[in-house]
Design goal:
Order of helices and strands: EEEEEEEEHEEEEEEEEEEEEEEEEEE
CATH topology: Beta-galactosidase, Chain A, domain 5
Distance between the termini: 25 Å
Structural class: mainly beta
Largest sheet: 9 strands, antiparallel
Shape: globular
Mean pLDDT: 95
Helix content: under 10%
Low-confidence stretches: none
Radius of gyration: 19 Å
CATH class: Mainly Beta
């Protein structure tokens, strides 16, 4: 089922399957900012990454000497969330453990995903509650995909504008995990222009941003996307290397396994640990 929220400026539509944002538009125009999940390229819009971000070595992790299997980015994106609360400009969804989830992730939890419209911005909030008797390890992240280009823009004129940095430090992705040998990507006037070559070696996994704001636009018209993600230690930027017509801007609390990782979740970089009855909250904002 899909639900729409709106205010005087913008409207957003969210599915209960995965609590996934599937549409974001300015009311005055008909431009769709969210990628419409064309299966010929990539069949998702904006999946929720929980309780892991990225891929595990051999799709496995070890907790208290027991091995569990879990696919890339976890299970939240493939479950139906319950509608928890809805208002005209606000909606909140809830996911809890079930029998199938407990086979992959042996913890009792509550995961709340909410969307709130604030003028021409959409605030996406995450809330995780540990209802288990033991410490709960987890990561959480966002994966919104945006149309590239927006409307009738020329594709190769689009760029990312960064703040307070002249270069990016990238963790390279390999088939067997993330490499710890960082690569430097220079920027031109704090801009990274987009083309097929940018993603020829998969996503850009970035850690060094001091100013947690990124702007996606070109200088042909006034359309833009700004993502603000204060508190998120990592940022992923991704599109298909074939030059697919979408771009992903992904704030992450967590990261994929590094090459040679021992699979023990307590040794995993970026993992968070929530005490019994502990609560973790975070949010990011999309402005159009």
């Amino acid at each position: 089922m899909e639900y729409t929220i709106s205010n005087n400026f913008i409207s957003a539509t969210i599915k209960d399957f995965g609590a996934e944002l599937c549409s974001l538009k300015r009311n005055a125009v008909n431009t769709e900012y969210i990628w419409q999940a064309d299966e010929n390229f990539w069949g998702r819009h904006s999946p929720i990454l929980f309780p892991i971000v990225g891929k595990l070595i051999d799709d496995e992790y070890i907790y208290e000497n027991k091995t569990y299997r879990m696919g890339q980015h976890g299970f939240a994106r493939d479950n139906i969330f319950k509608l928890h609360e809805k208002k005209k400009n606000y909606i909140c969804f809830k996911l809890e453990e079930n029998e199938q989830i407990l086979e992959k992730y042996p913890f009792n939890f509550e995961l709340y995903i909410s969307y709130r419209l604030l003028e021409n911005s959409l605030k996406i909030s995450y809330k995780v509650i540990n209802n288990s008797e033991r410490v709960m390890p987890f990561s959480i992240g966002a994966h919104p995909a945006f149309n590239w280009p927006l409307d009738n823009e020329r594709k190769n004129d689009c760029y990312f504008k960064f703040y307070d940095t002249e270069e990016l430090e990238r963790f390279p992705l390999r088939k067997n995990g993330i490499s710890n040998n960082k690569e430097i990507i220079p920027l031109c006037d704090k801009k990274l222009y987009l083309n097929k070559k940018v993603f020829k070696n998969d996503a850009l996994v970035i850690e060094n941003l001091k100013e947690k704001t990124i702007l996606f636009k070109n200088d042909i018209n006034d359309k833009f996307i700004r993502v603000e993600f204060e508190g998120f230690p990592y940022l992923g930027l991704w599109s298909k290397p074939s030059g697919a017509p979408f771009i992903c801007i992904e704030p992450w609390h967590g990261i994929a396994d590094f090459i040679g990782h021992n699979k023990k979740v307590e040794d995993k970089l970026g993992i968070k640990f929530l005490e019994k009855e502990g609560i973790f909250e975070t949010s990011y904002t999309i402005t159009i």
